[in-house]
Write a structure and sequence with these properties.
3 domains, globular, 570 residues, 67% helix, mainly alpha, Growth Hormone, Chain: A, 18 helices
Length: 570
């Protein structure tokens, strides 16, 4: 009876922790951290070119490498979070690295001796006469940049998983709340991004980069303070101690070693941890029939040890990761399309009328358009669409994760098609007004490109959070942060492949994008090509999604807790 009461007390203690109260601190950190990151993502090219005297090509390459690396480094944060540190400690440590990075950039922007004399007021043709940044000045810049990249990568891996940990996906009451968490996580991310691309961009343009970086530094500092304030409320999943990557390698090595071993017909004969050997938060994943050759790693032989015998759960962890890879690959192209909206669409905006009731919209602030769409759509999705869909499907999330990702991929294809039509109209306006070679703004409002941005904003809402939720829900208990990091890698590879796609298309097409004059280029053809390729990519995704088998978990640990509750109540 005493053991039963202890189990009930533990369960009630867990229920007092977590939930929406704990998630509020996660939202606060995400909003503040993303405010700083996105503000710099859309405007750092200006800083590199105008204040560090980089060439336009080097400025663009430096930013692209920074963005791609930041998302790739989430793998480091995910690995550490699952292996060595709790998700909370990972967030604090990596955010502190990010804080140091912004501090370095603030100091460099403030003290003239840490950067070259600015040539921003000179003509582009005179850039070659400007003093280049010294090796020491470049070293300070890159140190600051990649401390930010490492820091934000770790936060992006651990923070969504920390927030989702506050809800029990196996609890009928908390499962819908966990789905809502990912929606409101995106909402906080969006609010931070809106403030970043408007207020902070305005500060950097009108008050100087020293003030802009100072605000970013303060924002990250408060992000750390907020996440620490909620420490007593968090449900913390302790790291497993063993690396998920090592466990996967063990399965592959043992399966290869046992390639001639016969797999028993009875699945019960495969090795699994017994009930009495289980520890808290350990889950047993049911065996699936896919990739049966890996089951040889769980066949009991005369040899013991992790490099000679694996559990069925360990084998299924490996199968899950293999099944996830085609899903993540099929979403990379969508992020390649996103990169075009952040480059070519900005160039389109620079040729159009950017006046809004007497206020001139800065070029780097144009991405606020899809963010505003997301700001409106996310609450509607969470409060209206999901409850309505839940009535018909019975699924806590309204629709499955893979369905949500698929809707986003369809919308991204539509966005590219619309972008092609908008560009066709923009070019026709230039021809009609004899402004093909003019540098003046065309008599066409910049908000025409709001159509393609708005549709892509909706696509982002479905796909990005669908991926995060899918990878968190489907991964094993010991791989939550790493799986979240893998989801972010889709964005990283989208940035890296963007340049390759542009160069290949430009070469094969004979120069659709060869001119420096958009009015003479064929950007509309490029957008339509991306739309067609997006449709083909969606077909590939449908094949992958129909082939995917969702994870099934034997939750014997919860059953024992429920039995204990019944005994105490009796």
């Amino acid at each position: 009876m005493g053991i039963c009461r202890d189990m009930v007390g533990t369960q009630q203690g867990l229920r007092r922790k977590g939930g929406n109260r704990a998630a509020l601190f996660v939202y606060a950190m995400e909003g503040l951290e993303n405010m700083a990151f996105v503000a710099n993502a859309v405007s750092l090219v200006t800083y590199f070119f105008g204040f560090m005297n980089f060439s336009l090509t080097k400025s663009a390459t430096t930013l692209t490498n920074f963005m791609g690396t930041a998302f790739l480094l989430s793998l480091v944060g995910g690995f550490i979070s699952d292996t060595c540190l709790s998700r909370f400690k990972t967030c604090v440590i990596f955010a502190s690295m990010e804080l140091l990075g912004y501090g370095l950039l603030t100091a460099q922007a403030h003290f003239q001796q840490l950067r070259p004399i600015s040539c921003k007021n000179g003509a582009a043709s005179q850039m070659s006469h400007c003093d280049a940044a010294t090796d020491g000045q470049v070293a300070i810049l890159y140190t600051g940049l990649y401390l930010i990249a490492l820091g934000t990568g770790g936060v992006k891996a651990a923070l969504p998983a920390l927030g989702a940990d506050q809800f029990d996906e196996k609890d009928p009451k908390e499962a819908p709340q966990m789905s809502s968490f990912f929606n409101w996580f995106l909402f906080s991310l969006t609010i931070g991004a809106i403030v970043g691309v408007t207020f902070i961009v305005w500060v950097s343009t009108n008050q100087g980069w020293a003030w802009s970086f100072t605000i970013c530094t303060i924002a990250v500092l408060f992000a750390i303070i907020f996440i620490c304030m909620g420490r007593s409320l968090y449900r913390n999943n302790a790291p497993k101690g063993s690396s998920p990557l090592v466990r996967i390698i063990q399965v592959l090595v043992v399966a290869l070693r046992n390639r001639k071993v016969q797999i028993p017909e009875n699945a019960e004969e495969l090795h699994e941890i017994h009930e009495k050997e289980r520890v808290d938060n350990h889950e047993i994943i049911k065996r699936t029939n896919q990739f049966r050759f890996l089951d040889r790693a769980a066949v009991v032989t005369n040899n013991d040890g992790p490099w000679n015998l694996c559990t069925v759960t360990q084998v299924e962890e490996t199968k899950i990761l293999i099944r996830m890879l085609p899903i993540i690959l099929s979403t990379i192209f969508m992020n390649t399309c996103l990169a075009q909206l952040q480059t070519f669409s900005i160039q389109q905006a620079n040729t159009m009328d950017t006046n809004l009731h007497g206020f001139k919209v800065p070029g780097p602030s144009i991405p606020v358009i899809p963010l505003l769409f997301m700001f409106v759509l996310i609450p509607l999705y969470d409060r209206i669409f999901v409850p309505l869909a839940r009535r018909f499907t019975g699924i806590p999330t309204g629709i499955t994760h893979l369905q949500r990702i698929g809707i986003g991929l369809v919308l991204s294809a539509i966005s590219m098609a619309v972008a092609g039509f908008v560009e066709t109209r923009r070019k026709s306006v230039a021809v009609q007004h004899n402004m093909v070679d003019s540098t003046e703004a065309l008599p066409m409002s910049v908000f025409w490109i709001g159509f393609q941005y708005g549709i892509f904003g909706a696509a982002d809402m479905f796909t990005i959070i669908g991926l995060l939720e899918f990878f968190y829900a489907e991964s094993s208990a010991g791989m939550k942060s790493l799986s979240t990091a893998i989801a972010w890698c889709s964005v990283a590879f989208g940035y890296f492949t963007s340049t390759v796609v542009v160069e290949v298309v430009n070469k094969v097409s004979g120069g659709w994008l060869a001119s420096n004059n958009l009015n003479r280029d064929n950007l509309n053809y490029f957008y339509w090509l991306l739309a067609v390729m997006s449709v083909l990519n969606f077909v590939f995704y449908l094949v992958c999604a129909s082939w995917y088998k969702y994870k099934a978990v034997e939750d014997k640990h919860r059953d024992s807790k429920d039995n204990a509750l019944e005994m105490v109540n009796a």
